[in-house]
Request: fold
Amino acid sequence: MMSKSIYIYGASGHGLVVADIANACGYDDIIFIDDGTNEYPTFEDIKDKSSIPIVFGIGNNNIRAKLFAKVQSSGFEIVSLIHPSAIISPSVTIGKGIVVMPNVVVNAKATIGDGVILNTSSVVEHECIIDDFVHISPSVALAGDVKVGKHTHIGIGSQVIQGIIIGSYTIIGAGSTVVKNIGNFKKAYGNPCIEIEDIK
Reply:
């Protein structure tokens, strides 16, 4: 049987989890790349080997977006990884380069943009729209028809009631309960979740 190879861009703890998902998806030759000062090859080292697909092991939304653009312009195939235990409705629309971790549920007619992370045991209910490069942390629950703007991070264990709009480049703190709309470039947290300060 031929080996099935994949690059994982980012060798941090998040990258290790992505590697486990890649293995569960049938990749048996997992090659970490990282631009830090460590033992792993950098992107420059492998940029001429675009026959191997690539996925991102980077939790920071802004860094992931910049690297996504660089990798895409270099001709690599950017793949998505969906853990076999995840439940994804067949009517869901999924972008490129997303990572769906164990025990995630995504229900009918949700839309998931490019470069999104749906972390362990998160729930994205019917008709939610998750824009590009969002990170939905472990055990987050989004009720139906929630919209999350690009590059936003929703902290672990948060919950969002139906129909809420959360802006772009916003951070929702861990354990928050979001019951009203949150704007762009906001740091917000609490129960109920309120906007605390602007993100510059």
